[in-house]
Amino acid sequence: MNVEDVVLVGFNSRVAALNRETGDIVWQWKASQGSGFVSLLLDDDRLFVAVIGYTYCLDPLTGQELWFNPMKGFGTGATSLATSRGHSDYAGLGESEARDAAASSGVYAGT
Fold first, then answer.
1. How many folded domains does the chain comprise?
2. Could you tell me if residue 111 is inside a domain?
3. Cβ–Cβ < 8 Å for 58, 41
């Protein structure tokens, strides 16, 4: 199995990898700290997960937690994640189209 074979879903401080063909759960994980909204960023062989003020790194194929950072002093709330290798949902759109699409979803991913 490779990362193209799964769909990653996050909610209520949990993440699950689903088989993209069958919808079956491949693995599931629960944050040891933090609760509520989950932000996900898949970056090649790493899945970055933020749960209301806490940041985790998982193996996207197994769900194994690779590291944890409590981000002390940063506060809590919905988290934005980015890497130089991460891909935007608006990749392939021109800047104005990406801005319009992001604005309609409440997110802006422009430069």
1. 1
2. no
3. no
